């Protein structure tokens, strides 16, 4: 049966068809739909699902479940891998018990990302982590199942690395009819400190075991059907090596230029099926490596060519950009150039001025922005953070002096305060961000004595990513009642002396509290609590 | 385009639609409907869309491609056959990205933003640059008047496009897709809006 699914929905489908037991996630565009769908259907499918407080504990929860013998999946955007890396790297050393897939979704062109245009692929090099790259929703589903198989066979986690144009692509997917209401599986943690404890010198032995496993997976990859060659070898001088959604753009470009040449599509990013690659490039005079962002595959091809085909001409980042997503036009240009042909890139001049994102009508953040705008001066520095309130940085408000990662508004603000005299910090942070990363940063300002004004914009949800729950709401990701953590109480418990909860609609009280707290010699925290305007509609 | 030309085009190629608008205008619902309709007629289909930050009141667009075999999910360069503009400035934004054959069906709804053009400037631009390729429709006004709700103006445009044969999809397929995609409680409203042009 064929069903139109989003790439992210297809990942859920693949996990269900594989019999996943345990799923954890932290919301992050373009990965959020994975958690959202599991949130709705987990109960009826015998799956445990949670929105975790951040990606580190999300991964650690999945690790605990894996060590207890359950099949698990952890989902996040690319930046989330940064957050959980400290526990991801040791997991390759211990190996998994129950199979595990980690879904990491990148965002080339930063359609929904600040921070950086981060490429998750090099994590595989850093940690020796097997990685698969689907190119469309059907492959999202199929590769999840294959990833679980690899994880089960070799006892390593496998990263399924997707991108915006795969995650948010809709296409027909062949799906299985699943039995509803299977019972939830109960695991058991069987003690095995030899596997689960990464103390030295055992840790070094683990590394040797890991490197051996990777070579076994490489041999598996050499035979895997998800790495495939297509196209005509008749009078072939130039070939293409590609992966992910770039494969689809490549086929489009070949169609446009009416060219039929050999194409090697890699489903495995790591470990690389080197024999397959050598066989491919041996017979060619030139090869164009089509990949988004950094030229990871290109570097590998250059290294392999040295012994396999030293005369081959290798094209890649000389013809394709390292910045921004690819499309068929960019690939047609590169392909034409590599073939020595002319290609006219369509000239496009914009005629309508850019429309920037805006807070929704009735957004409570607008109240905060209006007050801060009045206070604007060279001596008050505004720290931005990740969430809907990052729109404070849009041209119409211009209320952001720095913007980095989750929780960094306070982290960086503390550094500025310790480094300067007579300058003040107003650090904005959302409720979900506070729990995710804000607490250690806040403790640091108390412990190391700086006086930022931290304003936690508590709109009772994790808004930007689609209104998921968080530890301050009192509802779990499976819709069950739970403890509702209070931000102001946490701040007080962490030693913040000046704490107040206000409703931003009480503008006079809000403004005078801000002015008052700006004069404090120690850290202060305002919880500006008013529900997101879109919550009422849901 | 008439039916014979459509048949010829679809036998070899594919049909490319770009929907433009402002975040929150219902582009994704329309995208889902068109994808389901295309699948039900036996076409291969791929779509692209954006979520999250890109949706907060900024410009958004979705791509829908259907035909015998679709490769890239993106419609880049000037390859769109049809541009559906749910807002007039966003419809105009797509003009440099179109070919002489690209048809524009645009709702004359205007959502102000700082730094943008005036309603008059935009309409003037869009009419002079597109001429006969433009169908500028008062979809929001019509829906408000006839159904009492302008939230379905995108569905009204869809009905316009399908019944005026600007797209190689049958009305029955699109209607079936609407039933599949739209929640039960809004179904009557949507069916009415879709069929308005026909009545």
Written overview of the protein:
The complex is a heterodimer of chains A (538) and B (199). With 538 residues, chain A is of the alpha/beta class. Chain A has helices spanning 7-17, 32-41, 55-67, 78-94, 123-127, 137-154, 164-167, 193-196, 202-223, 245-257, 274-282, 296-308, 328-338, 365-375, 408-419, 431-447, 487-493, 507-517; strands at 2-6, 22-25, 48-51, 72-77, 100-106, 131-132, 158-163, 169-174, 228-230, 238-242, 263-265, 268-270, 286-290, 313-315, 380-384, 402-403, 424-430, 453-458, 498-502, 524-529. Chain A is 39% helix and 17% strand. In chain A, the strands form four sheets. A seven-stranded mixed sheet of chain A has the order 3-2-4-5-7-6-12, with helices on both faces. In chain A, helix 1 (7-17) crosses helix 2 and helix 10 (245-257) packs across helix 13 (328-338). The longest helix of chain B has 14 residues, at 27-40. Chain B has a six-stranded mixed sheet with strand order 2-3-1-4-5-6, sandwiched between helices. Chain B has a single domain (3-194), classed as Pyruvate-ferredoxin oxidoreductase, PFOR, domain III (Pyruvate-ferredoxin Oxidoreductase, domain 3, 3-Layer(aba) Sandwich), CATH 3.40.920. In chain B, strand 4 (80-85), helix 3 (88-93) and strand 5 (98-107) form a beta-alpha-beta unit. Chains A and B meet through strand 8, helix 10 and helix 13 of A and helix 2, strand 2, helix 3 and helix 4 of B. Strand 8 (169-174) of chain A pairs antiparallel with strand 2 (44-48) of chain B.
Low-pLDDT segments, ≥5 res of chain A? none
Question: Compute the gyration radius of chain A: what is it?
Answer: 25 Å
CATH topology of the largest domain in chain A: Rossmann fold
Shape of chain A: globular
| CATH classification class of chain B | Alpha Beta
Structural classification of chain B: alpha/beta
Q: What are the segments of chain B in which pLDDT stays under 50 over at least 5 consecutive residues?
A: none
Number of separate domains of chain A: 3
Distance between the termini of chain B: 22 Å
Kindly state the percentage of residues in helix of chain B.
Answer: 40-55%
| Rg of chain B computed from alpha carbons, rounded to a whole number of angstroms | 16 Å
Number of strands of chain A: 20
